[in-house]
Specification:
The structure is a homodimer of 225-residue chains.
Chain A: E1 3-8, H1 12-23, E2 28-34, H2 37-47, E3 51-55, H3 63-71, E4 82-87, H4 92-101, E5 105-108, H5 113-124, E6 129-130, H6 132-145, H7 163-172, H8 178-185, H9 189-203, H10 208-218
Parallel strand pairs in A: 1-2, 1-3, 3-4, 4-5, 5-6
The first copy, chain A, binds a DNA duplex (30 and 30 nucleotides) through residues 162-165, 177-179, 187-191, 193-197, 200-201, 206-208.
Chain lengths: 225, 225
DNA sequence: CATACGATGAGCCGCATGGGTGATGTACTG
DNA sequence: CAGTACATCACCCATGCGGCTCATCGTATG
């Protein structure tokens, strides 16, 4: 079973080069080409390739938008190819946009030909592959978002909040008013105010809005569920 | 300049195989081996390799803990090698733990020898590299956490906020008071209050604390930097 | 036993905040 | 040209919120 590939790039020379390189592989067929995103989407709809090699920067419709359309097809379109993004420079925003859109890979055009070929095979197999510099960024991003479990626990950052204070802070970060917090914890509203006052003082915050920010930034609460 | 590598794996056979494979490269020197995490850390401290090949599952101290110790060294230890994790099976938890700890790569032991060699070079160069199946998971995770901007834009979620209102909302989410927002945007405080009033009304929120929550939950602002 | 800390709550005070209404100027669009 | 959307600002008002002080009651901790 051969891997059907189309190549979308505004430079004819690049298309020709990649086409020649890939077509020389017995397990890869180049079944189409296009010079911009719009035509790329059309060609893909007709030729339903397994893999779309997509340049990022193109006239008419850039590779990111084209990738989005291919990966989130309108009702009625069943075909959903794997998309392998290509770029000359490696620019953060492009990478993240592409990955968000569901691209299966991101390579720099200066990668060794062998890498491109194996990338096509990897992507066709349903796996994913990134340029090493991109991988590094993605990992860094991942690690930054979820820092390693601090050995002293998250409480360390919360500079000596008592359990009750932490509890109150969390309810603030859920958007409750003082009165609602009081009801929720079965307390007098005044008690809640005392707790909040201490929380703000200990953390050096001005108001509950800043407390909410702190709760998110410190990981006490996290976005999305 | 050769790349100094140590190999940490509890199976002598595996160590021997990898050592032979890598030592055959003119630009790679194997400067040490260890059968478990604890000894691996010791050997690394003495031999200060550029790259540590680290098995995940080992007696005494597993590869994850060893990686953590190498990548977050105690005061006084300056050397900080790159860590390339190896595993026989690819298990999610291991991968995420390792990446959180700051590992530069994650390969399956059944990868082609050429991949291992190039992985060592990539990692030594400060870049990163993952097994394709791992890459796929990381991307999926990434895309899931930050879903692609719907084609009608993130503003759709913000239910028709005007650009100015969005701007004000963002400053609220940075913890600024009305007066500070006014100064920041060169406006009268009353104007700021009008904008905020509209934001709260359009989004169905009660106060600025809830506005901060919304800003985080909608992705207008994100934790961490 | 004395001390300290955490949790609870009261009273008071002042201001930032949020709601409501209305007005003006600009810019775009049908 | 009329209609609409947006940004700007003013005035008024009620109150939620945060600052400050003080008091009581447990429970550890020395």
């Amino acid at each position: 079973m051969t891997i059907k590939v189309i190549i979308v790039d505004d430079q004819a020379m690049v298309r020709a080069g990649f086409a020649a390189l890939l077509a020389a592989q017995s397990d890869i067929d180049v079944v189409g080409e296009a010079p911009d995103g719009r035509e790329g989407v059309e060609v893909s709809r007709r030729a339903h390739p397994d893999v779309v090699l997509m340049d990022v920067r193109m006239p008419e419709m850039d590779g990111l938008e084209a990738a989005r359309q291919l990966l989130d097809p309108p009702r009625g379109v069943i075909h959903r190819p794997k998309v392998l993004m290509l770029t000359t420079f490696d620019v953060d925003d492009y990478v993240y946009e592409a990955l968000r859109a569901g691209a299966s890979g991101f390579l720099l055009k200066d990668a060794p030909p062998a890498d491109l070929i194996s990338a096509v095979r990897v992507v066709a197999a349903g796996e994913a592959l990134l340029a090493p510099s991109v991988t590094r960024r993605l990992i860094a991003d991942f690690a930054r978002q979820r820092p390693a479990p601090r050995r002293d626990g998250p409480s360390a950052r919360r500079s000596g909040l008592t359990p009750r204070e932490t509890e109150v802070l969390e309810l603030i970060a859920r958007g409750l008013s003082n009165q609602e917090i009081a009801e929720s914890l079965v307390l007098a509203e005044q008690t809640v105010k005392t707790h909040i006052g201490r929380v703000l003082a200990k953390l050096g915050l001005r108001d509950r809005a800043q407390a909410v920010i702190f709760a998110y930034e410190s990981g006490l609460v996290t976005p999305g569920q």
